[in-house]
Amino acid sequence: MNEVFEKNLRKLQLLQLDIAKAIKELCESNGIPYFLIGGTLLGAIRHKGFIPWDDDFDVGMLREDYERFIKIAEEKLDKKKFFLETWDTEKGYGFPFAKVKLNGTKYPERNAPKSVHQGIFVDVFPIDTAAPTKRRRLLQLTVFQVTYKFYIYKKGYIPRVLYNKKSNVKWIVAKIMGAVAHLVPDSVLKNIISKSLKFYNLSSGTIAVNLLGAYGYKETCSKEGLVETIKVPFENTEFAIPKGYIEYLTNMYGDYMQLPPVEKRYNRHGNYDSVDFGEYS
Question: Which of 79, 144, 219, 261 is the least crowded, having the fewest Cβ atoms under 10 Å away?
Answer without folding.
Answer: 261
